[in-house]
Amino acid sequence: MAAETGPLHGYTVVELSTGIAGSYCTKMMADGGAQVIKIEPPQGDPLRQWSASGAEIPAGGDGALFGYLAGGKHSVVADPDVDAEFVNQLLAGADAVVWSRGSSLAESDAFTPAALRRNHPDLTVTSITPFGLDGPWSELPATEFTLQAWSGGIVGLGRGSPDRAPVFVGGQVGEYLAGAFASAATLASRRRGVGELLDLSMLETQIAGLTYYPVTFFQMLGRPWRDARKLTVPGIACAKDGLVDVGCGTAQQWFDLCAMIGHQDWIDEESPLSITEQANEKAAEIYSWFQSQNIDDIRDLASAFRIPNAPVANGANITGLDQFEYRQTFLDNPRDGFRQPGPPYRMQPAKLSPPHAAPRLGEHTAHYRKARPPVAHKPDGTADRLPFNGLRVLDMTTFWAGPSCTHFLAMLGAEVIHVESTRKPDGTRLIAGIPVTEEQWWEKSPIFSALNTNKKGLTLDLQTSAGRDLLRRLIATSDIVVENFTPRVLDQIGIDFEVVQTIRPDAILLRMPGFGLDGPWRDNPAFAYVIEAASGVSWLTGYPDRNPYEPYSVGDPNAGVHAVNALLLALEHRRCTGEGLLIEAAMIDAAVNIAAEQVIEYSAYGALLQRAGNRGPTAAPQNLYQTADVDEFGRLDSWVAVAVANDEQWTGLCEALGRPQWAVDPVLNTVAGRRERHDFIDDQLAAWCRDRSGDDIVQCLWDAGVPVGKVMQPHRQTEIPQLQFRRFFEDVGHPVNNRVPHSTVPVRFSAGPDRFHRRPAPLLGEHNYELLTELGLSEQQIAELEADGVIGRAPGSARRAAAR
After folding, report:
1. Residues 187-222: b if buried by 16+ CB within 10 A, e if exposed
2. Of the candidates 402, 413, 558, which has an alpha carbon nearest to the alpha carbon of residue 481?
3. How many domains does the chain have?
4. Are the CB atoms for 308 and 252 separated by under 8 Å?
5. How many angstroms separate the CA atoms of 563 and 484, rounded?
6. In the prediction, which pLDDT does 552 show?
7. pLDDT single digits (tens) 771-800
8. What is the distance, to the nearest Å, from the Cα of residue 607 to the centroid of all Cα atoms in its chain?
9. How big is the CA angle at 32 (ends 27 and 37), to the nearest 5 degrees?
10. CA-CA distance, 43 to 37, in Å (whole number)?
11. How many angstroms separate the CA atoms of 339 and 329, rounded?
12. Is residue 117, in this structure, part of any structural domain at all?
């Protein structure tokens, strides 16, 4: 039974990849019960010798991160020069293959994505590359760092301080994002039931995970989300006894913070300044108050005021935090004993595969060489069927994490009904800064538009018995119900898994709480920034001599794509058993998985990973360097990202610079030497870049094979020719707003669709009549519901009805 062996039992995946992205993709599938055959060249995956802290890996041993990512997989060694037939036999019996560059095996002519599709047309071939397989940038070098620059994620939502260079999000989060999207796309393709090529671009996954729909925002409103770097205040602040994160994501939270620290006089609902600007004006006084308080007292107060808050976790302290202890978030690695996160979601009655040991190099080679040749896999689907066609999703989510999950489903064919209330519409309708004096101001949010295309819009006041009754009737028609409230909200409206099961036994209930459905932090409000702080993501972001910066971005979309993966496992379980499921996809559990390296390094080697500005463990030199360009805001604040990941790229950099005397020092010919003299190299590169334009630097270094990227303002993403080639943006019309570009998904499916956005985001309550008529309500009944404020087409109609 699938319930006993994992939802993906019987699904076979061949891993022809190196690095974190491909390994995390297949780890997620192995956790779901898939058989993953990792085919390695004789020297093994380089991850076997990787440690972010530089810990020495003994001969014949494996790095701890490899031990985490490869758990439960089978290792087969193959030499591309002599074992092509053997590898093709393994591929012939597989359902999917995950491919990335980086090994002689994957890059041999016999196993390129094109060759895999040609020789194994029934396979799902998932390719993970920096820019995509085709297009003007497809062969250009890149690293996680330079991709963050191109994506706009380095400047993101104005993270950082204007007195220093902008700073990237630390911890290789882009690799994990790419892996999670690759897994979701692969399992979505499985539902379609045809062999196809999935072409994932890591640049596009970073845009999806590190920026907040900046193109749509800019082109709809004529201004960027933020045009300068500003600290989030209080953000991560110093208390008496350490660091604590307290954030204000809404105006109400800012007002509550003012009251919390005894400054009700700061509350000004008519202020022309944003809450960020108001907080920055009062920063000195706010920080002074925080320094006078203990962490626990601050968090107790903030929780009482419903202000998002969290401790600031790192590899050393995270396993001892009470929420994680209560929920047993961290487990012992079954082979090497270090601590690692459990799966990023939980479900019942289906069970994920328990942790298994990672294989030694070639441990399973003999078994597969002796095994009977597998029966060829023959899909029975049709290419013109979108993966989620026929699924109805009741989407009770708001803001970013939940809607990003259901948006993926909607773009790939699901019927998604987005439920709001006129009393409290989706929060993204309210955060664009549109004056309430403008006609239909609530329909003009670029963020809502970008997150909700292809969905239907329904309003229901769930504080009324009529609204709750209609909700139950809708559940009876839905395959999936998704919500991302704090747990107490669903309790208040009387909907839990048992209730859903009585209404529709095969329905899937996906819950996306911030910190989980139980534990001492259960009811704490969770915005991206506190999730990032509590998981360790923030710890590695920023400069070593300052408090960490909140990335303020990745926590939500990362939760969304992990929830998609959980749903795909649940759908597979339902297909096999007919059972409905409860999924708990807590934002924090998804976040601790993409920050796993910190706790792994600390528990395996005693090494506490630290933030280092724009430097990182994968390249040296790696940094941002100012150019001669004046930016679009009239400032000398333009930068390029350069990352030299190996000796060959160092040679290329030296050639591009004209082999200056300083660069030919033999000490710099090794990674260790370059890392030791990083300050010196930075000074030289800074001087070289200072008098050149960003475009000239990029062209010069790319021609020499050196990873480089301009630090883009995120709203300029449409200017990138590679994104234009891949049609990553699609123009979307709207009955209220102008036709503007909207980002799509970071994967191109060879079986389609050719276009992802089929209709614009819904107006508030746009489909009330259609959906309620389907439930059997008459025109008179629908009119009465509107008169009573149970449904409506404008914010506040419920309150107006009550006043009558």
Report:
1. bbbbbbbbbbbbbbbbbbbbbbbbbbbbbbbbbbbe
2. 402
3. 1
4. no
5. 11
6. 86
7. 999 999 999 999 999 999 999 999 986 565
8. 26
9. 50
10. 17
11. 10
12. no
Q: Quick check: is 19 in a domain?
A: no
CA 430 to chain centre: 23
Would 666 be classed as within a structural domain? yes
Residue position matching structure tokens 């997989």: 73
Tell me how long the chain is: 804
Examine residue 698 and state whether it is found in any structural domain, yes or no.
yes
Contact 404, 561 (CB under 8 A): yes
The two structure tokens encoding residue 322: 């009470």
Q: With both helix axes pointing from N to C terminus, report the angle between 173-192 and 144-151 in degrees, rounded to the nearest 10.
A: 80
Distance in angstroms (rounded) separating the CA atoms of residues 553 and 713: 15
Question: What are the C-alpha distances in Å from 713 to residues 228, 717, 741?
Answer: 10, 8, 16
Query: Which residue segment(s) compose the domain that 652 sits in?
Result: 620-706
Residues (pLDDT < 50) of the chain are 1-4
pLDDT at 73: 97
The residue written with tokens 């596009």 in the block is 204
Distance (Å, whole) CA 305 – CA 85:
65
Contact 58, 360 (CB under 8 A): no
CATH of the domain at 670: 3.30.1540.10
The separation between CA 61 and the C-alpha centre of its own chain, rounded to angstroms, equals: 31
Q: Cβ distance 405 to 397 under 8 Å?
A: yes
* Amino acid 803: pLDDT: 55
Whole-angstrom distance, CA of residue 720 vs CA of residue 493: 47
Measure the CA dihedral 389/393/395/401, to 10°: -60
